[in-house]
Amino acid sequence: MLSLKKTLRRLMAKITVRLYSLFRQLTETDYIDLEANDLGEAVKQLELRFGPQIQDRFKTFGIGQNAKIRAYCIFLLNGRSVNKEEFDRVELTEGDILQVFPLGAGG
Prior knowledge:
Blueprint: H1 2-11, E1 13-19, H2 21-27, E2 31-36, H3 39-59, E3 73-77, E4 80-81, E5 97-102
Parallel strand pairs: 1-5
Antiparallel strand pairs: 1-2, 3-4, 3-5
């Protein structure tokens, strides 16, 4: 069992998540470092860590209370847009940079 945990631990990649615009204001940070195997796992970690405070703020804009971060963001992995349906299939590698942008509002 211990060797399995070590193997799983080695598979996880350390990545940097850069936050922009309103997310930077709400989280009071420009970036965070985290470890994940794939993009879906990384986004889930973001949702657990920051989801409630972002959702509370977005309620004032009429965005659904139960919406997940992935529903109202654009994600770039190493500068390339990633289709949200493919998150669980996109493997991460050490040093990847995930950029998270809230969708813009226009008028």
